[in-house]
Amino acid sequence: MNFDRVKEKLEILADAAKYDVSCSSSGSRRKNKNNGLGNSDGMGICHSYTQDGRCVSLLKILLTNVCIFDCAYCVTRRSNDIKRAAFSVQEVVDLTINFYRRNYIEGLFLSSGIFKSPDTTMERLIRVAKKLRLEENFNGYIHLKSIPGASDELMHEAGLYADRLSVNIEIPTKEGLKLLAPEKNHKDFIQPMKAVNNAIQEYKHEKEKSRRIPAYAPAGQSTQMIIGATGESDRDIMYSANFFYKKYNMKRVYYSGYVPVTDDDRLPSLGTQVPMMRENRLYQADWLIRFYGFEVSEIVNENSLNLDMDIDPKLSWALRNMSQFPIDINKAPKELLKRIPGVGLKSVHKIVEGRRHRQLNWQHLQSFGIALNRAKYFISCNSKIHYSNDIDPFKLKQNILLESNSKYSKYFNYQLTLF
Amino acid sequence: MNYITYDGSYAGLMTILYDIFQYKIESPIIQSRTIKDVGLYENINVITCESKAAKTLNYLKLFLSIGELELIRNIFLSEEQLAEQLIISVLQKTIKNKSSILKDFSNSNVLKIHKINKSVNREKHRMKAFIRFKKVDSDLFYAECEPDFDVLPLIIKHFSRRYANQKWIIFDSKRKYGIFYDLTQVQFIQLEKNSSNIINSQRSGEHDYEQLWSTYFERTNIKSRKNTKLFIQHVPKRYWKHLTELK
Ligand code: SF4
Asked: Which residues form the Radical SAM core domain (chain A) (predicted)?
């Protein structure tokens, strides 16, 4: 391998791939077969972190940044005047194996600009994965980006070698997509998702009949949406995400605050702040739906188009639904405990186990690590002291904000000057 | 007061538990392996006995799940001052009650144990993440680390499964011992001073891969999202000297 040449390519093709946020390597169990190299044990490992605190777990690169399309939000777009490069299949294989052997990475995340046609591109991505699995006996994690517009047959083949497949929908609304990627069709994104989802279901079905069916995209599908590039509301975003979760059994939907990469009238100008807080709130809301039993409509709806920026979405929901509180820590079912602001899943577990031995009081709750500054207004426990929850929600919110030393408080100084 | 000293091994601690019950020793104080001489007090020295230890562990299996036994072991490997004391006290209670008390989160010792366990598990996880192998002569992959707790025994399974077809050594330079996988099994090793030159005999080309990795690391960063506080929280500075990309 010619190191200098590969280094140069790596500089270009890692740089162009970094805006894709789905770096996780969890959710796949792949055993090390026949004394080969590597495994995936279900829990992803972040081997390092970038200066912005995002996890580095996979070698995330583009096969090439040559692209025939011109999507406005993308660095790789045709009309952008940048250096172009392309890895050979063998170069990607060598990089992956050698990084993996040194415990730098959990595996490979391979994406690509669309050169020639979607099918030619997809076929080349598959060749890398196939070579890793069949020739190198590599059992580490492989995530392939599905190319919008690729054929069902190729999508089917991709799932045989990849742990996860993703098509990034990028723009949460159809209108936004039309504006920013006019050459692309909503259908081009949906079709590969559909093909992969069908195949996953099929294999699952077959697996019930025979155990010897090979793994098919065991970590499922994911997708990504860029946040803040078009004027969409958080409700638009969450409803779109929900559609993908429900309809195509997405394992994850990622939200990526738009980083201005090119000057384009249709987009926020260069130098615009990345909406990190909004991104963070969307992830919190996403968790509430996936793990806390909330419905999307409880979090965002006609009356709450956007998530609150100054408080987390669970607290925000609680303040809008004061009649559901206080919740009795010693009696309430698990499902209700999960709805208390400041109480996480681990604390729910501690409450449920702890109350079997004795009635729990404030001290116990504190020792469980519950954020009492938020939680105390919404619960009752084995203690005479009760924090009144019939304060008007607006006032309650101010109390909580004043008491909590939010790590983001610096973003909300204007709050304090209001009162 | 009953002061008990022992050799500091896990089997030793399990032997103590056996003897406590055998000889009905009331409220014993276990001397951590770092304190050698207690002088003033009369102390009992428990001599490690593999068969007593095995019996104790077997008996504990009646009440504790595999996960709970692992948890106890983790506490031991934490090298915390009070680790032995905590272990003995909750196990004594467990045996008395004939059922595990490890889920009673309203018991302060139990909470302490879970807290220590969390730190040990985090360190174990970090070692899985932050180990960086270098390829040295004779096709050996070598890594050095200095974990906060004695977690090498806890990562053997992970690395031997993952790197089944390469020889590797992970060396704990703080505790001066390592684990060595020779393509069939893992053994504990001590490294002599002069073996360090084997380790230093880096393969040509090795530096190139380190450079490629550093290049990748640099290029994957998005400058406009910089958040140094978060970064240091994830990768505390004490780990940096062993991380290829941060050296
Ligand atoms: S097709 Fe993909 S790589 Fe090409 S410009 Fe659009 S988003 Fe970028």
From this structure: 62-199
